[in-house]
Design brief:
The structure holds 3 protein chains of 3 kinds.
Chain A (H helix, E strand, L loop, with lengths): L1 H29 L2 H9 L6 H11 L15 H4 L2 H6 L16 H36 L4 H15 L2 H15 L15 H31 L2 H8 L4 H22 L10 H7 L4 H11 L2 H29 L1 H4 L2
Helix pairs in contact in A: 1-14, 2-3, 6-7, 6-9, 7-9, 8-9, 9-11, 10-11, 11-14, 12-13, 13-14
Chain B lengths: L7 E4 L2 H21 L2 H11 L2 H19 L3 E5 L10 E7 H6 L1 H4 L17 E5 L2 E5 L16 H35 L3 H9 L7 H22 L14 H37 L1 H16 L2 H18 L7 H36 L2 H8 L4 H38 L10 H8 L11 H28 L1 H4 L3
Antiparallel strand pairs in B: 1-2, 2-3, 4-5
Chain C lengths: L2 E12 L6 E12 L3 E5 L6 H9 L6 E10 L2 E2 L5 H10 L1 E4 L3 H4 L6 H13 L3 H14 L5 H4 L9 H13 L5 E5 L7 H18 L2 E6 L2 H7 L2 E6 L2 E7 H6 L4 H9 L37 H5 L5 E3 L2 E3 L27 E16 L4 E17 L3 E5 L6 H8 L7 E6 L2 E2 L5 H7 E4 L13 H12 L7 H11 L16 H13 L5 E5 L7 H18 L2 E6 L2 H7 L2 E6 L2 E7 H6 L4 H9 L49 E2 L5 E2 L2 H6 L1
Helix pairs in contact in C: 4-5, 4-7, 5-7, 7-8, 15-17, 17-18
Classes of the chains: A mainly alpha, B mainly alpha, C alpha/beta.
């Protein structure tokens, strides 16, 4: 088991290198620093001087891979690749266009992101499983049929609509909750309720429908018939036998996104003015702040790979067939 | 090609070309499926599902509008010479020509649905005095003499529209009944009984109801839109109905062309990984783990920026605004395709891993059949249903994604009509008093209708092609 | 006699109204306490649906349309669902065919048994666990204490089925319904499990409803027999009377379709197949396949009549001719050419096992370990063994579908290596076990048959259509079959297509991998006859891989018995099967349930299961299960000992005896 996890960890390294090279290619080779400067300066201010100055300011004035003017190891270290791409392996992200240290920003913004994303994830999981189990319990009745139709309707509605409608009705029209904002501690709770509520509702359609399929597949299996033949009640069959088997794909599907919760949600955070990593990312995209975008790409990939490893571990934890072999 | 004799200049945008290719591909596929019983059977079962047929009809309305909107041209300027014609810089589509004045009847700024006055008060010269009031619209309700005539006029037009729709529908139904009765050699009454009891071999009642509703809705819109802005106007006074209809093409392009990009990648790499295993599998898995691990939005953002830079540094390649917007749309489809093939590829890999151990593949190997032949004859036909299900399931997700991306600022070109841009442009107006809701409402309604229809249709297709029933029959 | 279970005119249907499929159609029978009642029939005749109806566990869409079921005087069908739960597991318990699928994979065996104990015996805590342990002991699970903590996947098939039985017994049921309890098990394991069931029935005076398609299992276990056909019971009687003289034409034909020792002639086959329930059924349901049909059979469904204590539903039961003993003819001695067609020397297939951080190879699964055999043209060699012994791997390695690790294969005098694989593929072909997975559902039969000819360039392209039509005729399929897809054919017809596909490139050797084990007995007979005819007319050699000794007896000239990757005994089929010398072969032969009246032959019971080929025991692989094992068996693998007629065996005990 330990050897297995170690091997998965080692496998993460080439993947991170791949991500790093890909982002390097996208941001520095296809899109040269000159292009970036032009885009940032705007058409009116593009002069060779301005471009050169912009590049110096942002540390993009070095050669890409090999600095022939430097000596010794500096030939490789005093390059854009080393300073801006390779440095990310030790989580050195440098500064954003606003001059702030990206690493610091990430640390302070993770909290607010989690404050929204984690409750959405946990409550959403519970609500979806409950809803799915209900539909499965009443399978081949009208309750199930309309439950599925409701799911399809819910998942056909744009996520933006949930947010806009929620903010408009709950906050603006009925004044139940603040429309946006964030605060730490218990005070902050009232800011969190609405985005969490909306996040959960927006996810019910696809989530519950997916889990229903999983449970339905399980309920058709032979062991369920055995459990019934033992004389177990339908509720017990569902909760002890079906749920336990159905949780394996559900858990492993959920665990992979767990680390990514740190990244927050772009849309929710920007609509609700939450100072998390999601709104940080969206601001960076809109301001074309490449340093931040690159940092977020690396962070996202890193967290995704952590998620993959956690998935493997959780899989072997949840399924004795994997654990014991 | 000498097109001087035409009074317009056909314009083939990149996405137009791809859409027409796609259409041709679909037609070929339909022809192919009709000739193969085992391919036709599940489609027949789709056609027997009321929900699937109903949503297919709604979808087809969207598709027709989208196709009409994909035939582009430029008008010849009236004063240009015959041998050296000059054309307008505006790229129009057949759809634009069909809706006529809807495009050109531009107001000054916001106006409510079916209104005859602007949304905001303005200083108007009345009898030489500047009065602050709601000015009349230039086009919306301009035929009315007094505000009190508005409601009766709307009612009258609505009723006429609905009645005409109903009449056309009844006429069509009569023709259909006569044809069907003759074909099945029943009397008209017998066929009508069968239809009424739902005992036809296709969901006749659902189709009739949906077609009637669509026709009545069409009648209603045509009659109202002739004199009003049915969904109001937007900030610059453009008709919201027109924008919403124009956005259909954008949604369809994103939903279909993206999948078109993903298919070769997903099918080729997925099957290769599963079938050959070994180092090929390792490499392909590595590539898709890397791609998958990069947050999609950021990758799209990076790619869109690249395209922007490219367009700006090559202005001579993109002579019209339409071409510029089009290349960005195409780039968006491409990059979304590149980021989203991994899911299907993983599915196909798993399925190919299973299939390659099946006895019929072993039997083919025992004959020394080549790998390409085994893949094309044994593996691909047996995973095709998964591909199909993925196409229809992905479609709605992509349409919804467009709105989010446009909001983030990495979606389609701001000058292009799309629901995402509509939402993005109007969400801040919600803070106004009274609220400007119609633009959002129209965008969400159109998007919801398309996505719901696509989802319901996808459900029907998935149930019909359900692999759990498909294997052993 | 007071009946424990009384079923009266039970009708189970899927769907309602005119379109309802009546899968069980008016069945009546009873089971007394302490009695085993066997429900016998081919697949799709409604046996399992009858059982599920009794338990009221029908799959979605199925419902009991009419009739009554009384368990110990209690009308089961009118009970509210809540009370029915007490009956399930408590009044009657059920065990299923596939023990791997029927146990919950993620719950410990002990917990699954405990669940039933808590429910029906209201035990709690420690007491439950002890009771579960006692139950496992009673069904003969070794090391029961430890097994309670295992997950189902950690147990072998035989143990799993014992756990199922233990679980069924937890509620102290009065009636045990066993639905094909041993079909998925190997024959030596089947003998163990059936013995457990017999012992329990006697000890606990349970009634048992045994559902099976296997006449042998019925003969050795049942007190009374009911034969089902197409949803109806067609014959019923005491075991001995039934086996002495079956009355219904269907029952008779089932017997005659069974290959039996010393039977060299043709098997009787039942033409056609069991009708689907959606066919409009009128008159006697067996009439379309019955050789004795008269006009009355077509129109009028026969009623029960009593004949010498047996009950039968046939208009002609009283008039049918007395059953003729099948003539027993020896195998026609086919001309033995000296030169073997296939010669295999020292074939090995080892799969590396990788473990640990660097995925180092830590060992090998020796699936096939030093196998040598030869087949002459026109003859059949049967490769016999239980599942997991490597017999299928041998077949695939010969065709290089799996790359062999070592050994030489020569075919028609030419040594086969990677470069002349095309020669191999023209001379040797394969027929697979499962006719459903061996035909691509997306290809027309014609394309399936042409595939091999195209790939190997056999014959001129323009003649291939002609060849194809001829092939279809040869395997007894209609000529228009080529245009259809596999799903239009039944299991037996599909197997004919698979045979035709193999024959398309005119091979000299056909490797048949359990070609009849997925088929019903009547269809099996058709395929066996076909294989035999083809051998006679084309001079084919067969390598016939099977676990079914009865089929070996019928078809094979020579037989090789495999155990854990090695051949332990080989010789002429008649010699090996009638006087097996290796203890394993002896156990195998004795474990096959027989339909003849008791011959006094006792079953040699094998302890435990076949070990894993990853870690085969030292010395003779069989010694841990062998009752004759001596010290030398634990140390060295025995060399072949030649007996008479080319019959040889690898056994120290045999050497010591002679």
């Amino acid at each position: 088991m330990l050897a297995y996890i170690l091997r998965r960890l080692l496998y993460a390294i080439p993947i991170l290198i791949g991500v790093n090279l890909l982002t390097f290619a996208l941001f520095f080779v296809v899109n040269t620093p000159d292009d970036m400067a032009r885009l940032q300066l705007g058409a009116k201010h593009v002069t060779p001087d301005a471009i050169a100055r912009w590049k110096v300011e942002h540390g993009y004035d070095k050669p890409l891979l090999l600095n022939t003017r430097a000596n010794g190891s500096a030939q490789f270290t005093d390059t854009i690749f080393f300073k801006h791409s390779a440095a990310m392996f030790v989580f050195e992200f440098g500064k954003g266009d606003d001059g702030r240290n990206i690493g610091n920003e990430i640390r302070t913004r993770m909290g607010p992101s989690l404050a929204i994303a984690l409750p959405v994830f946990v409550i959403g999981l519970l609500v979806n499983i409950t809803f799915a189990l209900l539909m499965v319990f009443f399978r081949s009745t009208y309750l199930d049929l309309w439950g599925v139709v409701l799911c399809v309707v819910l998942m056909s509605i744009s996520g933006l609509f949930y947010i806009i409608a929620g903010q408009y009705f709950i906050s603006k029209l009925w004044n139940l909750l603040p429309i946006s904002g964030f605060a730490g501690g218990i005070d902050g709770l009232r800011f969190i309720v609405l985005p969490v509520l909306i996040g959960v509702v927006a996810g019910i359609g696809s989530g519950a429908r997916w889990y229903r399929t999983i449970f339905l597949e399980e309920i058709g299996k032979d062991y369920v018939r055995t459990a019934r033949a033992k004389g177990l009640s339908e509720v017990r069959v569902l909760f002890r036998h079906v749920l336990k088997n159905g949780m394996i794909p559900i858990l492993t599907g959920a665990v992979v996104v767990l680390p990514l919760l740190f990244m927050g949600s772009l849309i929710t955070e920007s609509f609700f003015g939450i100072p998390g990593l999601g709104s940080y990312t969206i601001d960076a995209i809109q301001a074309q702040d490449f340093a931040v975008v690159r940092a977020m790409v690396f962070l996202g990939s890193f967290l995704y790979i952590v998620g993959l490893i956690l998935t493997d571990i959780s899989y072997s934890w949840a399924d004795p067939r994997v654990r014991l072999q | 090609m000498n097109t001087a004799w035409l009074n317009f200049d056909p314009v083939l945008l990149w996405t137009d070309a791809l859409i027409l290719t796609l259409l041709a591909g679909v037609l070929v596929l339909v022809w192919f499926i009709r000739r193969h019983e085992h391919l036709r059977a599940p489609w027949r079962s789709v056609a027997q599902r009321p929900m699937a047929m109903g949503s297919a009809l709604v979808l087809s309305v969207f598709v027709i509008i989208g196709l009409l909107d994909s035939l582009h041209y430029r008008e010849k300027l009236p004063d240009s010479l015959a041998d050296a014609p000059h054309y307008s810089v505006d790229v129009l589509s057949v759809f634009d020509a069909m809706v006529g004045d809807l495009r050109t009847q531009q107001e000054k700024t916001y106006s409510e649905p079916l209104a005859m006055q602007l949304y905001a008060k303005e200083f108007v010269q009345r009898d030489g005095v500047a009065v602050r009031e709601y000015p009349r619209l230039k086009f919306g309700g301009s035929h009315l003499r007094h505000a009190s005539e508005r409601v009766p006029d709307i009612t009258r037009r609505s009723l006429i529209g609905l009645a005409q729709g109903l009449a056309v529908s009844l006429l069509l139904f009569g023709l259909l009944a006569a044809w069907q009765a003759r074909r099945t050699q029943n009397s008209f009454g017998e066929w009508f009984m069968l239809w009424g009891e739902g005992r036809l071999d296709w969901p006749g009642r659902t189709v009739a109801v949906i077609v009637t509703l669509l026709l009545m809705m069409g009648g209603l819109l045509i009659h109202l839109a002739a004199a009003y802005h049915v969904f109001g106007t937007d900030k610059v006074g453009q008709d919201v109905l027109y924008i919403s209809l124009k956005s259909i093409r954008t949604g369809l392009v994103i939903g279909t062309l993206t999948t078109l990009v993903t298919l070769p990648l997903a099918i080729g790499l997925g099957i290769a990984a599963g079938y050959f295993r070994g180092w090929i599998d390792d490499v392909i898995q590595y590539v898709y783990t890397v791609l998958n691990s990069i947050p999609g939005v950021l990758l799209i953002a990076a790619a869109v920026l690249i395209v922007q830079v490219y367009v700006e540094s090559n202005p001579d390649l993109f002579d019209t605004a339409a071409r510029r917007a089009d290349i960005r749309l195409l780039a968006l489809c491409l990059i979304m395709g590149v980021t989203s093939w991994t899911g299907l590829a993983r599915l196909l890999r798993g399925e190919s891993l299973k299939l390659r151990t099946l006895d019929y593949v072993e039997a083919a190997r025992a004959f020394g059949v080549s790998h390409t032949r085994i893949i094309s004859r044994h593996i691909f036909p047996n995973v095709f249903h998964l591909v199909l299900i993925a196409i229809v399931l992905d479609f709605s997700g992509l349409v919804l994604a467009e709105a989010v991306l446009s909001y983030v600022g990495v979606g389609v070109d701001p000058s292009m009509h799309s629901w995402g841009n509509m939402i993005n442009g109007s969400r801040l107006e919600l803070a106004r008093e009274p609220v400007v809701w119609w633009q959002l409402g129209a965008a969400f309604t159109f998007m919801f209708t398309l996505v719901l229809a696509a989802n319901l249709f996808a459900d029907g297709v998935r149930d019909a092609f359900d692999p759990r029933q498909g294997g052993r029959q | 006699m007071n009946a424990l279970l009384k079923v009266d005119k039970l009708v189970t249907a899927f769907g309602r109204g005119d379109d309802a499929l009546r899968v069980v159609d008016g069945i009546s029978f009873h089971v007394a306490a302490g009695e085993t009642y066997a429900l016998l029939g081919e697949s799709g005749c409604g046996k399992s649906m009858t059982a599920l109806s009794l338990m009221r566990l029908l799959p979605d869409g199925g419902h009991i349309a009419s009739g009554s079921v009384q368990l110990d005087g209690l009308d089961v069908l009118v009970l509210p669902e809540f009370d029915m739960r007490g009956v399930r597991g408590g009044g009657m318990a059920m065990i299923f065919q596939e023990p791997m699928l029927a146990l919950n994979p993620v719950i410990k065996v002990g917990t699954q048994i405990a669940e039933a104990l808590e429910l029906h015996q209201h035990l709690t805590g420690e007491a439950t666990w002890d009771a579960a342990c006692a139950l496992l002991n009673s069904v003969g699970v070794p090391d029961a204490e430890r097994r309670l903590d295992s997950y189902p996947f950690e147990l072998s098939g035989g143990l799993r089925q014992r756990v199922m039985i233990a679980m069924a017994l937890a509620g102290k049921p009065k009636l045990l319904i066993a639905d094909e309890p041993t079909t998925a098990l190997d024959v030596t394991i089947q003998a163990q499990v059936l013995e457990v069931l017999r012992k329990l029935r006697t000890e606990q005076q349970m009634g048992m409803l045994l559902i099976t398609h296997d006449l042998g299992v019925v003969a050795e276990n049942a007190d009374r027999v009911g034969v089902m056909y197409a949803g109806e019971l067609v014959e019923e009687g005491a075991r001995d009377a039934f086996f002495a003289a079956p009355k219904h034409p269907y029952s008779r034909m089932l017997f005659e379709a069974l290959p039996r020792p010393g039977d060299g002639g043709r098997l009787t086959t039942i033409p056609g197949q069991v009708p689907g329930f959606d066919d409009k059924l009128q008159g006697c349901r067996f009439a379309p396949r019955c050789p004795h049909t008269i006009a009355r059979c077509q129109s009028e469904s026969p009623d029960w009549q009593e004949l010498n204590g047996q009950r039968v539903r046939c208009h002609l039961a009283a008039e049918l001719p007395v059953r003729i003993e099948r003539e027993l003819t020896a195998h026609a001695k086919s001309t033995q050419s000296e030169e073997p067609l296939l010669q295999v020397e020292g074939l090995k297939v080892h799969f590396p096992v990788r473990r640990g951080f660097f995925q180092r190879t830590v060992g090998h699964v020796r699936a096939v370990d030093d196998v040598s055999l030869s087949i002459q043209a026109g003859r059949t060699l049967a490769l016999v063994g239980e599942s997991g012994c490597g017999k299928t791997t041998v077949g695939k390695a010969l065709l290089r579908l799996i790359e062999p690790t070592a050994g030489t294969v020569s075919l028609g005098g030419e040594i086969i290596h990677a470069n002349n694989a095309a020669t191999l593929r023209r001379r040797a072909q394969m027929v697979f076990q499962d006719p459903f997975s061996s035909l691509n559902p997306r290809m027309r039969v014609a394309d399936i048959l042409l595939e091999g000819m195209d790939a190997l360039g056999v014959g001129a392209a323009k003649d291939r259509r002609e060849v194809m039509t001829q092939l279809l005729r040869q395997v007894g399929l209609p000529e228009d079959a080529g245009g259809r897809y596999p799903h239009a054919f039944s299991g037996g017809q599909r197997q004919r297509i698979a045979i035709a596909r193999a024959l398309a490139v005119s091979p000299q050797l056909v490797i048949c991998d359990e070609p009849t084990s997925a088929l019903d007995v009547s269809v099996q007979a058709q395929i066996l006859n076909l294989l035999k005819d083809l051998q006679d007319s084309l001079g084919l050699a067969y390598l016939f891989i099977t676990h079914n000794l009865a089929v070996v007896d019928y078809l094979a000239h020579d037989v090789a018995v495999m155990y854990l990757g090695r051949i332990v005994e080989q010789g002429a089929a008649a010699d090996v099967l009638s006087s097996p010398r290796h203890p394993y072969t002896q156990a195998l032969v004795s474990a096959v349930p027989r339909i003849e009246p008791q011959t006094g032959q006792h079953i040699i019971r094998l302890e435990g299961d076949q070990p894993s080929p990853l870690n085969p025991p030292q010395g003779c692989h069989f010694h841990p299960r062998c009752s004759h094992a001596i010290e030398v068996c634990r140390q060295t693998f025995p060399d072949p000992t030649l007996l008479e007629n080319g019959h040889w065996v690898r056994c120290h005990w045999v050497v010591a005896q002679s």
